[in-house]
Design goal:
The structure is a single chain. By secondary structure, the chain is an all-alpha fold. It folds into four domains: about 60 residues, 434 Repressor (Amino-terminal Domain), CATH 1.10.260.40; about 130 residues, no CATH class; about 90 residues; about 90 residues. About 70% of the residues lie in helices and about 0% in strands. The chain has 22 helices and no strands. Helix 9 packs antiparallel against helix 10. The protein is globular and about 70 Å long. About 0% of the residues have low confidence.
Length: about 400
């Protein structure tokens, strides 16, 4: 099913995997504590999709990745046909990664130095924040191979050992975050684990704090919200005891860890914890004083506000998002501004404001086509817009239907 049937709704995907497991609607509904009528309406689209915490529970019972129920794409391509995720998977799962003793190079073999690689990784991070996912995925296989060579160099115990591990951590962090964004949850976790292992070896608190973000991304993508919350809280406490009090980079990383933990709490439907974490992040943003981008965090007062809106959407507080969602995000990294527009469009569609929702989606698509066309929330929103007005928006010539085809929401 992965990579196929992107046009299927979340309800249709639940029905597909339920039947594959041999469950009746009555049995599956009973396992999650709901009525058969509730599940039937979900599967047939007569009721909006379940909250993310319920989807995580359904994915556990049906024994499929959460991304498969959400309908996240497997391939994200740039202009060139060969730039896709399987190449990243191959780089992460190379047998050379299994043992440095078995596959290590001879001592006289020249290995890359960390400084020029760090420049390449920085450019790839800029592409990610600019919404150019295809470019990131095209660059990752070579970057991951080079990161492995840097780890081999670090094993030789040279003076740049710490820098080698730090660049490897940043590379694997980028891989984990990108893969989580497009629904490749299994290898996202593999990349995050390697990011944190490399960060441990770097002996740099900021490198480890940054890598911990990748761990929360991967855990969220896998529907492991309690674990993501635990990691976020543990990393925040650890960084707080080691970072310089007025270091803007440390403030930014700590703030982002709180924000990711808040998302985890919200998806577990724990409003008090989510609110408390958002408030802590807001205090740090106030200390920072403005919207900045240390360590590609995009952290500051605006990012806290964007996460507060996202959390409220996860908590089903649609009216709050509609009321407070019209904010200026043009100065933010494009990945953040597009993510906000997608969330805001979803809230508008749920509130019955279809025209405004479509305007937000079109603005987001013009900013970053790849982020929009590979997002399952966009597909669900477009399907809802067509259902709300099947005559005007469901026509194959309508702008909504044409965009739905581009995003693989319909056939």
């Amino acid at each position: 099913m992965r990579g196929l049937g992107d046009h299927l709704s979340i309800g249709e995907r639940i029905a597909f995997y339920r039947k594959r497991r041999g469950y009746t609607q009555e049995v599956l509904a009973g396992l999650v504590g709901y009525s058969t009528d509730w599940l039937a309406k979900i599967e047939t689209g007569r009721r909006k999709p379940p909250r993310i915490d319920m989807l995580a529970e359904l994915s556990r019972i049906l024994r499929v990745p959460l991304g498969d129920l959400l309908g996240q794409a497997v391939l994200v391509e740039d202009e060139r046909q060969q730039d896709d995720v399987p190449a990243v998977r191959d780089a992460l799962m190379s047998p050379r990664r299994l043992s440095r003793l078995l596959f290590g190079r001879e001592a006289e073999v020249q290995l890359p130095t960390p400084a020029p690689v760090a420049v390449r990784v920085e450019q790839a991070w800029n592409d990610y924040q600019g919404g150019r996912l295809g470019s990131v995925i095209a660059a990752l296989p070579a970057l991951l191979q080079t990161a492995q060579e840097l780890e081999e160099r670090a094993a030789r115990r040279g003076e740049d050992r710490s820098d080698c591990w730090a660049v490897s951590a940043r590379t694997h962090h980028l891989a984990a975050t990108t893969l989580a964004k497009i629904g490749e949850s299994d290898i996202s976790w593999l990349a995050a684990e390697r990011a944190m292992r490399a960060a441990d070896e770097s002996d740099d608190p900021l490198v480890l704090a940054s890598a911990a973000r990748s761990g929360t991304h991967a855990l969220l993508a896998n529907g492991r919200y309690d674990d993501a919350l635990e990691l976020g809280n543990t990393a925040a406490a650890w960084l707080s005891s080691r970072a310089a009090e007025n270091d803007p980079a440390a403030l930014s990383l700590l703030g982002m860890i709180h924000l990711r933990a808040a998302v985890a709490a919200a998806r577990h439907q724990d409003r008090p914890t989510a609110t408390g974490l958002l408030d802590r992040a807001e205090e740090l943003a106030d200390d920072l004083g403005s919207d900045e981008n240390y360590w590609q965090t995009g952290f500051g007062p605006t990012n806290v506000l964007l996460h507060r809106l996202s959390v409220e959407l996860d908590l089903d507080n649609v009216s709050y998002v509609v009321e407070h969602g019209r904010i200026n995000v043009d100065h933010m990294p494009q990945e953040r501004s597009v993510s906000h527009r997608i969330d805001f469009a979803r809230a508008l569609s749920l509130a019955g404001q279809g025209d405004e929702a479509f305007t937000e989606l079109r603005t987001a698509e013009r900013t970053s086509p790849q982020l929009v066309r590979n997002n399952p929330r966009v597909r669900e929103t477009l399907r809802d817009l067509i259902k709300q007005s099947p005559v005007t928006r469901g026509s194959r010539s309508s702008e909504v239907f044409v965009m739905a085809q581009r995003c693989r929401a319909v056939q």
